[in-house]
Amino acid sequence: MDEDDKGAFEKMRVDLKNLMDSILNVDEQLVTDAVRSLAIASLSAYGASRASGAGPSGGLSWQDAELAVYLVYVYGELKPKGKVGVDQQKKKDAKLQGVELPPTPHDELILALIQSGISSYPHVAVRAQFFESVGRYLEFFKDRKECIIPVLEALVDERGMHQPKKSRRGRVFYIFHRFIKQVQKELPQDILLSILNSIRDLLDLDIELPAPDTDENSSAGSSPTPDQDGNAILEEAVTASSAFDSQIYLFETTGTLIWCTSSMGEDEQFNLLQAALAPLLSGLSQSLQTPMKDSKDVLPVFKAHHLIQALASVVKGFPDAPTSIHPDAPFRRRFDAFKEIAEGVLVSLEALGRFKIIRDAARFAFTRLVAGAGVTVAQYIPTLTSRLLSPDCDPSEIVELLTFLGLVFHQHLGPEVIDMLDQLLLPLTTKVSAVITQPIDGTDAQQANAETKRAYLSLILAIATGPLATVFISPRNLTSFPSIVEGIMSFAADNTYPPSQRLAISILSNFCLEFGPPEGAPLPAKKPGAKEEIQTHYVPGFERVIYDRLIPLAFSIPISPGFNWKDGLTIQVTNEIGVMLKATYKAR
Q: What is the pTM of this model?
């Protein structure tokens, strides 16, 4: 069957499904009974034939077998509009009440599908539809735990992830990932090591660069610099589809399976984690040591990118770390392994940070490391930030970095994070200010400038409104605080992008409440019913900033030439100006 035939078949199936839906709205019972009886008849016939010693096909044509499995797949959709999910909701309500409901007709269909053994049918279309069906209704396995093992066997062996044709494995990798994630609490402990050993060979990375396209549009006489040339090849290679796009789910699933071995003890779990990470860390070290012959010899960089993402995906398979980690907390040895990954990523960034895909991979990795390891990797973030804010980074990378830092500060508020922010604030504001003040030439540059400004102001606002606000006036940053305030005021006076203007005015409001009241004065409550606090971090001279700069600024913005009263976003700016004036009144 060629691509045209496949397209025609899929179109015919969609048309028939639409016709069935039309009948369903008229007579639901007629359709569900017909679908169920046809699927049960085919599945039962196949199971009986195999039990009697028939061949792998069980005397059932592959078309009939595939149709039966497909009907199981679509049966969950066979509800008139407004009734979808009613059975699932009834189940959830019954569980909360401790009542056991009889299996639904759909549950019986899925049970028949698994018990029939049709996952062994010798046609790839039937097996592929089987995996799609079980992957769609994962809630079923929470009630029928006896069905978990047969499905796992089919997923892992030559019917699924080990099927001969590698191009067909990718979708099964994803379904296996979702299956394990859903049933991890129901997995029998005695099979975890077997599953890990069964998928170990699938974790081998075969990384090759796709053939680069020739740049026919490059101007005559111009030759790209080595870094630009290498970056162009790598960007094209990363965006091209490859087996790694699906294989990365296996690394996350490996992390999940290792975490499920908690009952075996911390030492056994740590040894399994080390066994999974060691080949990846070794491969990363080898990639960093491999010399590049010329500007186009970037395969080591490409391999390093994939290895960093694979390491980070293993971390993602573990649960999120608590906000504070006690030294005697159970199963904390995994954090030592995660710290080793963080150090490996930083070494890669130092060696290959001129390549954009390595900077992207480093952000990808630390986003997962911060979630999985928490404050134990906070010490590495200042180094990460300084290396990401290299001269090679573009505005989009700065936006992603600012978003990442905002998540870090939101999730973790321990002393490690406060010290980290204290180190980062000045270089971060310096770099962002330099980027934002660059000349804007073109629509794309204007959009990038606006996004960078918005991300920076969002981060500053998140810091200013929480317990981290004192970092603005720490011994390290106090001398730079006036320039930070000056920069925020310039954003507040800029009418070209109202969302950023509103954020800037909101920051100034919080500065008034935080640093404006006199020393020892009661602080205005930031939330209704909050406990009253006494001012302990008054900034001498800030009252002059309020009187001489902020209040005049509040009245000058609405009368400035570019202020558009007809714009809804501008009305929000006006409201924020009122909030700032109220804050100045409360502060003084």
A: 0.86
